[in-house]
C-alpha cells in the first residue's frame, strides 16, 4: 500500500495551455480518493501523471515519501484500470489476469501465477469464466477481469479512469458497489477519476473537485455537500443542483425574489457593507407548508409552480422567479464566472412525494 502526495503539480501542453494548474493533494495509505469535475477539467491528466503515462511539467509527485517524477510507469508499482478495460481479445480470462505476472525479468513461477490468478478470480467471482475469451463476457465481467489484473500484481495502489462509463445504469450501480466492497476489503490506496457525482459521493473517502485544471476543494462527501467553499462546488455537487437566488441586503434582512428573510445571526457582520448576495438553497431545504407545519422561525412564502416531476420517492417542483433589476449586474457577473450556470430564472423544490401540487397552482 502507498501514500501518494502531489505537491504543486502542473501540466502544461506545448501551446502553454495549463491542463493541470498547481494541484496539491495528500492521498493517505488505504484511502479512496476521487477526482471529479466537468469534462476537460484535467482529472485524467492528473491521474496519468500519477501513473507515469504523462510527464509532469512542474511540481513533485511522491509515493511513500519518495520522489517518483522520473520513475518509469512499470517501476511505480501502481495498477491502472482503464475505461475500455484494455483486455487482450485473443487471451482467456485466466491469461488476461496472469498477464502482468508473466512480464519482466523477475518471472514468477507458473505455480504461483496460477495460485494468484485463482485467488483473484475467487474474489471477483470469475472462477467459472477463467477459460472464456473477453468477447464472451458481459461488460461487468470484463470490468472484473480488468480489476483482477490489477489485483494479482500486488500493486501499491489502484488507479481507475472512469471505469464504469461504458456500462448501462443498472450494471454501473452493481459495479460501483462491487468496487467499494473490494476496496474496503483490500484496504488498498485508490485514486478514481469520474465525472459522475453519484460515484464520487458514494465511493470516495474524500472527493477532490477540479475545475479548469484547478483544485477547488478536497473534502469528505458530506463536507462538500454541507460546506462547499465556493459557488462552483455548491452548484456541482448535488442533484438536482443547489438553487442560487439573488438577494439584496437591507439592514438585517435579505430581500429574496419572493420573500424577505432575516439574515442569520452568524453572518450578519460579514454581510455589513454588502449590497447583493447569492443565497444557496438546497431543493430539499424548501418544504411544502401544507404537508408539514413550518417550524418556528421558518420563512414562509407562496409561489406559482411551473412544472412538477413526480418520481415516486421524491417530487420536484420548478418555480419561476423574477429578479430585482438591481441585482442584475451581480447575476451576470456570476453567470460569467460559472460558465452560464449562474443566471437562473427558476428554482427547484424537492417536495414530499405525497404533496398534491399541481402545475400552475399556488404552493
Ligand atoms: P474528460 O472527463 O472529458 O476525460 P478530463 O477532466 O479528464 O476530461 P483531461 O483529459 O485531463 O480532462 O484534459 C484536460 C485538458 O487538457 C483538456 O482541455 C484537454 O483538451 C487538454 N489536453 C489533454 N491532452 C492534451 C494534449 N496531448 N495536448 C494538448 N491538450 C491536451
TrEMBL record:
Keyword vocabulary terms for this entry: ATP-binding, Cell membrane, Membrane, Nucleotide-binding, Translocase, Transport
Signal peptide residues on this chain, from the entry's feature table:
none
SUPFAM superfamilies recorded for this chain? MOP-like (SSF50331), P-loop containing nucleoside triphosphate hydrolases (SSF52540)
Which processes are annotated in GO (biological process)?
Answer: carbohydrate transport
User: One MF term from GO for this chain?
Assistant: ATP hydrolysis activity
Cellular component terms per the entry's GO annotation: ATP-binding cassette (ABC) transporter complex, substrate-binding subunit-containing
**InterPro entries documented for this protein:** AAA+_ATPase, ABC_transporter-like_ATP-bd, ABC_transporter-like_CS, ABC_transpr_MalK-like, ABC_transpr_MalK/UgpC-like, Mo/tungstate-bd_C_term_dom, OB_MalK-like, P-loop_NTPase
Concerning PROSITE patterns, the annotation shows: ABC_TRANSPORTER_1, ABC_TRANSPORTER_2
Residue intervals of the ABC transporter domain: 4-237
Asked if the keyword Transport belongs to this entry, the reply reads yes
PANTHER family cross-referenced by the UniProt entry: MALTODEXTRIN IMPORT ATP-BINDING PROTEIN MSMX, TREHALOSE IMPORT ATP-BINDING PROTEIN SUGC
Q: What name does the UniProt record give this protein?
A: ABC transporter, ATP-binding protein
Origin organism is Propionibacterium acidifaciens F0233
